[in-house]
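Supplementary Note 3. Input sequence used for the single-chain structure prediction.
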Amino acid sequence: MIKISSPISIFELGSTHVDLSIYDKSILNQNLFYEEKLDYTRNKKSTNAFKIDKLILKAEKDIGKHLNEALLLVDSSTIFSLDFSIKKNFEKKIINKNDLDYLLIESEKIIKSNYQDKVILHKIETDICIDGKKIESINNLNTEVNNVVLEVKFIMIEKKIFEKLKNIFLKNHISLI
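The predicted structure, written as discrete structure tokens, is reproduced below.
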């Protein structure tokens, strides 16, 4: 068997299966190195920790290496997206990328305070409008503006589900990336 030097694993937690794919991240454009799939049924608000643990142990034994990090794909009815828009009047102030980053952080704080039982999985900046004009890139931004509208899509999951999943991987000494 070919040895793997830097395993990167992808766990897909579907409603009826757990699928694990492992690649060697030190080899670019590489085909799949290892794959395993376990079928199960799960409730919409539960995870099957035993199946995931079993899959991790089997994979580590088969490849002869510990899995240090993993990408996690989750199919859950508790995942949803929230579109959020924040507007700030700058009154002819010269702004840069840092000002827009601050707006993104501010929008995240608002979401977290209003959805305390949820965890933000992803933030996607969908649109940035400066004085009513959509801009494509904020790199090297240094312009005088009246107002900025930042539109963000937040992908969220129930905190209980997220914590259960995170703890399963932490117990196995695997960090989620």
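The chain has a mean pLDDT of 87. The longest helix spans residues 97-114.
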